[in-house]
Amino acid sequence: MDITPGAGPARRSVLLAGTGLLTVPLLAGCGGDGPGEAAAPPPSAAGTRLLAVSDVPVGSGVVLEVEGAPVVVVQPEAGTVRAFRAVCTHAGCTVQIGRAEIDCPCHGSAFALADGGVVTGPASEPLPPVPVTVVGEDVVLG
């Protein structure tokens, strides 16, 4: 092992390089949709079957991936099905279904099942709607 000063990378370079490797994956989970950043467009393949209406609990919902984008499909009351982009408008984290609303696990924002509107901040914008229709027993895009 050569311990001659100047042989190999400096300790600071190795530490900084290691930090960079850890930072990228951690930021990827929450970033990308903050103010001024481009948001991924919602799914657009009209007519694509997402799931059966019976797979969406009444008074709740289901988060799924459609065309590489997270979507939350909800049934706030029997027979009413809606969908929203499942990305928190505050910091870009993927939301999840809570007890009676759509929750962001990152910073505590909550959104209404009925319309995706903000119930609790720090988010200040509603979840963007994703157009869906019920065709027979299925929820489809469009």
Automatic annotation (TrEMBL):
Matches recorded under Pfam families: Rieske
Name of the protein described by the UniProt record: Cytochrome bc1 complex Rieske iron-sulfur subunit
SUPFAM superfamilies: ISP domain
Gene3D superfamilies reported for this sequence: Rieske [2Fe-2S] iron-sulphur domain
All copies of domain Rieske, residue ranges: 48-141
Keywords: 2Fe-2S, Disulfide bond, Iron, Iron-sulfur, Metal-binding
InterPro entries hit by this protein: Rieske_2Fe-2S (IPR017941), Rieske_2Fe-2S_sf (IPR036922), Rieske_Fe-S_prot (IPR014349), Rieske_Fe-S_prot_C (IPR005805)
CDD domains registered for this protein in UniProt: Rieske
Cofactor(s) of this protein: [2Fe-2S] cluster
Purpose: Iron-sulfur subunit of the cytochrome bc1 complex, an essential component of the respiratory electron transport chain required for ATP synthesis. The bc1 complex catalyzes the oxidation of menaquinol and the reduction of cytochrome c in the respiratory chain. The bc1 complex operates through a Q-cycle mechanism that couples electron transfer to generation of the proton gradient that drives ATP synthesis.
Domain of life of the organism encoding this protein: Bacteria
